[in-house]
Amino acid sequence: MPVTDISRDLDSLTLTITARFAAPVERIWQIYADPRQLEKVWGPREYPATVVDHDLTPGGRVTYYMTGPEGDRHYGYWSVLEVDEPRSFTVEDGFAHEDFRPNTELPASTSVTTLTPQDGGTRAVYVTTYGDRESLQTVLDMGVEEGSRSAIDQIDELVA
What we know:
Elements: E1 3-9, E2 14-21, H1 25-33, H2 35-39, E3 49-54, E4 61-67, E5 73-84, E6 88-96, E7 109-118, E8 121-130, H3 133-141, H4 144-152, H5 155-159
Antiparallel strand pairs: 1-2, 2-8, 3-4, 4-5, 5-6, 6-7, 7-8
Pfam families: AHSA1
InterPro entries: ASHA1/2-like_C (IPR013538), START-like_dom_sf (IPR023393)
Family: Belongs to the AHA1 family.
């Protein structure tokens, strides 16, 4: 399993996920840079993603929805803040309405993905920061840890 650690820090309002992949940084970067590959790993198996818009450049936007087992759709977006290809990117990550307007009734966060070479593979660190404890607790209660682990663990299959 790629995910090696998940930690939450209620004082710094962060959720940090560390993973290890048996592929070089450039290959892992391609997954995030290509919407068709991203669809295969963004979301747990039970909630596959469909990427609608994909512009992984500063000021760009990525929009998507996940489809649940009963056909229900859950919409989200990334507003791309920073990109250092192929090492890192920073996005505002949020829930959205069907037209991809931010759903301000649910928490948004700032997520930093960092990819570094390690022993011929890649060490990935995903740090997500929330605005307050209530927002962090909301996503924890929604199952963000389990969902993230399920999604990230699919990357190994994609790069195999």
